[in-house]
Write a structure and sequence with these properties.
Order of helices and strands: EHEEEEHEEE
Shape: globular
Number of strands: 8
CATH superfamily: SRA-YDG
Distance between the termini: 37 Å
Structural class: mainly beta
Strand content: 25-35%
CATH topology: PUA domain-like
CATH architecture: Roll
Number of domains: 1
Largest sheet: 8 strands, mixed
Length: 158
């Protein structure tokens, strides 16, 4: 397995970061805006949950993660999603079962979101994908991620 996947030696579960730019500079998530980061040969390296998609569901140990596109940075789907590189990377992760690092941002409407900045919340495995009509009626790709057992608990906001 590539060093781009798995535990982060210098950043344990619960480590916090002041910005997306910091994640990018440290090489933990390669994109300042895109929520999916990875390599085609291995799948997703990391995702950032930042409240950008109305169809995301965060239950702590399980996440229903909306693939990229179709919302034009409005947080609401305004058109059907087209298949993209981000979707392909998530599908590869489903097939390879390589662990995905999950970062949560403070703009996420979730009891698991940090109160400020971004937090590394451990490794998850992509376990399912579905093509479905979302809350706004547009078709999207949604991926289920399940947290790998044996990691420290995720802090809660409330």
């Amino acid at each position: 397995m590539s060093m781009l996947f798995g535990n982060i030696a210098d950043y344990p579960v619960g480590a916090t970061f002041d910005s997306r730019k910091t994640l990018q500079v440290l090489g933990l998530h390669l994109h300042n805006q895109a929520g999916v980061s990875g390599k085609k040969a291995e799948g997703v390296r990391s995702i950032v949950m930042s409240g950008s998609y109305e169809d995301d569901t965060d239950n702590g140990d399980t996440i229903e993660y909306t693939g990229p596109g179709g919302n034009h940075q409005t947080k609401h789907q305004v058109e059907h999603q087209e298949w993209s590189k981000g979707h392909e990377l998530l599908l590869i992760s489903l097939q390879t079962q390589n662990p995905v690092r999950v970062f949560r941002g403070d703009e996420l409407d979730s009891r698991y979101a940090p109160t400020a900045g971004y937090r590394y919340d451990g490794q998850y495995i992509v376990t399912n994908v579905e093509h479905m009509a979302g809350i706004s009626g547009f078709f999207l790709w949604r991926f289920r991620l399940e947290r790998i057992q044996g990691q420290p608990p995720i802090p809660t906001r409330w």
